[in-house]
């Protein structure tokens, strides 16, 4: 999964490059076909106000930058889809998923998602379907992703608890319990990140719907699209801190390196009793696993 995350976070630089390429046309530094018409900040179906392009080499930066931006937007949604599919595979198809390296799953998810992302980017770039249709598709996909995410969280948490407190049967094995616990842990860590991503997408989609359905005056379209672009292009500035603060060790290390973090949050020494309690909990948990495993072996022999 690290393969997919590294790639999709890398597409953020693709988005910035696309914005840099498009910026001169949006600000009126470069005009299309000498019409002295600025690049529109919103879509239109009125052909009379559309900028007609006949000399494509002169607007190659505009076309390439726009395609890169659309590819980044589609990749953002695909990244969430890849995470949910990967956790689904880990939950239902492998009991030793974390123990054995299976890099082919990450590569397969990346190739499959990018195949769909590139096709979708090209279709919307050449306006085979409108922005309203794209918003409906993205909303439906995010709804499915969020629903699947919470279903997996509930399933893995319940499975881990059942393996801990119920009498085990012949199907019990230590790897299955560890995998269920690891799935539940990773999904719980991702709750805050998913919440931040969903808030960003909800606000961004709401802005586009307000502009596309003409719920606001036309002179607010530029401001709405500017705010939308800031949410889209700056979303890693919200997502990365959310991921960092989801892990206590990362949060503590970050606060420690802040100029005034050490004074506000002084480092507390762990008492010997805390260390002993932690070691005792680990020992009891490990003993419980092997007692359950031994019990299942005895049943299988009988």
Q: Give the quaternary arrangement of the chains.
A: single chain
CATH architecture: Up-down Bundle
Regions with pLDDT < 50 over 5+ consecutive residues? Answer: 270-276
End-to-end C-alpha gap:
42 Å
The total of helices stands at 11
Under CATH, the topology is which?
Rhopdopsin 7-helix transmembrane proteins
> What is the helix/strand order?
HHHHHHHHHHH
Q: From the alpha-carbon coordinates, what is the Rg to the nearest angstrom?
A: 25 Å
User: What is the count of β-strands?
Assistant: 0
Task: List the domain count as a whole number.
Answer: 1
* Portion of residues within helices: over 70%
Main CATH class:
Mainly Alpha
Overall geometric form: elongated
Strand content: under 5%
Biggest sheet record: none
**Overall residue-averaged pLDDT value:** 73
Alpha-beta content class: mainly alpha
Considering the chains and any ligands shown, give keywords for the structure.
single chain, 302 residues, mainly alpha, Rhopdopsin 7-helix transmembrane proteins, 0% strand, elongated, 7TM_GPCR_serpentine_rcpt_Sre, Nematode_rcpt-like, Serpentine receptor class gamma, transmembrane helix
Would you kindly provide a written description of the structure presented here, covering whatever features stand out?
It is found in: Membrane. InterPro entries: 7TM_GPCR_serpentine_rcpt_Sre, Nematode_rcpt-like. One of its GO terms (biological process) is sensory perception of chemical stimulus. This is Serpentine receptor class gamma. By secondary structure, the chain is mainly alpha-helical. The chain has one domain (2-267): Rhopdopsin 7-helix transmembrane proteins. The protein has helices spanning 2-26, 60-92, 103-125, 131-165, 174-189, 191-212, 221-233, 236-246, 248-257, 261-264, 272-301. α4 (131-165) crosses α5, α6 packs antiparallel against α7 and α6 (191-212) runs antiparallel to α8.
